[in-house]
Amino acid sequence: MSAADEPIGEWRERIRAAGVAGTSLRLKGAGTKDFYGEQLQGELLDLRAHRGIIAYEPSELVITARCGTPLSQVEEVLARQGQFLAFEPPLYGGDPTIGGVIAAGLSGPRRPYAGAARDFVLGTRLLDGNGELLRFGGQVMKNVAGFDVSRLLCGSLGILGVITEVSLKVLPLPRAEITVRLELGEQAAVESFNRWAGEPLPLSAAAWDSGAAWVRLSGAAPAVAAARARLGGERIDEAPAHAFWSGLRDGALPLFAAQPLWRVSLPAAAPALPLGVAPLIDWGGALRWYAGVAPDADPRARASAAGGSALLWRGTPRDAPRLHPLPGVLLQLHRRLKERFDPRGVFNRGRLLAGL
Amino acid sequence: MAQDIIAALAEVLPPDAVLATTEELHPYECDGLTVFRQLPKVVALPRTEEEVQAVLLACSRLAVPVVARGSGTGLSGGAMPHAGGVLLSLSRMNQILEIDPLSRTARLQPGVRNLAVSEAAAAYGLYYAPDPSSQVACSIGGNVAENSGGVHCLKYGLTVHNVLAVCGYGIDGERIELGSRAADGPGLDLLALTIGSEGLLMVVTEVLVKLIPRAPCVQLVMASFPEVHRAADAVAAVIGAGIIPAALEMMDRKATAAVEPFVHAGYDLEAAAILLVESDGTAEEVADQVAEIERVLRAAGASSLRVSGSEAERLRLWSGRKNAFPAAGRLSPDYYCMDGTIPRKHVGRVLEAIERMEERYRLRCMNVFHAGDGNLHPVILFDANEAGSWERAERFGAEILELCVELGGTITGEHGVGIEKINSMCVQFSPAERAAFFAIKQAFDPKGLLNPGKLIPTLARCAEYGRMRVHAGALAHPELPRF
Question: ipTM of this model?
Answer without folding.
Answer: 0.97
